[in-house]
Amino acid sequence: MTRRTFIKRGLAATAFLGGGSLAYAGEFERHGIEFSTVPLRLGLSRPLRVALLADLHFDPLYETAWLGEIFRLVAAREPDIVLMAGDFVTRTTERFEEFGPLAATMRAPFGMFAALGNHDHWSDRWESRTGGTRKIGRVFAANGIRLLRNTAIPLPMNPGWVLAGTESAWAGKPDPALFSRYPADTRFIAIVHEPDAWDVVNDPRIRLQVSGHTHGGQVRAPIYGALALPSWGRKYDAGLFTRGERNLYVNRGIGTVGVPFRVNCAPEVTILELS
To answer: Residue 70 is inside which H or E element, if any?
Structure first.
């Protein structure tokens, strides 16, 4: 988020809320995690139960107890596979070693996979000596999480299907040739942090793109909707979008950025029932 967007969102939210409402939004709504179950028919040969998380933003609040409880609740729903759609940090990977073992408690039989978000890439600016994204990768590797950086693997138990993950469209270097390397009859599920990339990476074989990035706006006014949305997240802000056989699901995220509260926009874990 740019400084201008930060100020705009903070001023708009403050104007929208009273003092007591700010306290409620910062403590209760921000922690009121919702589990959304979304059935989706893609034509898989074996159904998959997918847990989708996004925008953890581990720093600056470092809420290890709360994240640990969320991951416990995810594990209790027994997903086949866990997908995480970026922005694991806001600015720094300081203390990120604590994040890895917490996330490892979600272990799913077919694995945990992640793609990077714009904030993850931007952490490299502040940690040039060791590299923020390299540290994220090391922590993930040590805790059983596969980081997909313009790479892909076969989707478990579904011949002809591939799980792909790209770098951030805003801050990384996504590889447009990733999907063209596969045969014409391949079908993809893709983790792409920014939802508006759906209009750019528009290969019809990508039957499902999962994204985060927008936080659903964090603050939503009745009728009007999100008060502010980031670049690459202004067209598709939250929920399911379908165009022919192509599907996009935008998760509202778990953490916050800019201002540490949510209004009419609960944090979300999505359980995708894919068939």
So the answer is: helix 64-76
